[in-house]
Design goal:
Blueprint (H helix, E strand, L loop, with lengths): L1 H13 L5 H13 L1 H39 L11
Helix pairs in contact: 1-3, 2-3
């Protein structure tokens, strides 16, 4: 339970959803507790990776949709290689 509360605080910190007093307290906690600081760093990297993955999936879907649209319009055929 305590881990979930800490993770929620880390996410609020990363998203800049804390008021100035909360942020000051959390900054102090990061400076004095290396575990909390490490959690912020690791979770920030995790969220960045998740965002990149989401962007990649969106790109692949858009590419697939474009391919299908061009195929339906007769501008490409199935014999052409898809990279």
């Amino acid at each position: 339970m305590e881990d979930i509360i800490m993770l929620e605080a880390v996410e609020r910190y990363i998203r800049n959803e804390m008021n100035s007093d909360e942020r000051l307290h959390f900054d102090t906690l990061r400076k004095t507790n290396s575990d909390v600081d490490q959690l912020v760093v690791e979770h920030s990297l995790f969220l960045q990776q998740m965002n990149r993955f989401g962007e990649w999936k969106k790109f692949k879907q858009e590419l697939h949709d474009t391919h299908n649209d061009l195929k339906e319009q007769g501008k490409i055929n199935n014999k052409e290689a898809v990279v």
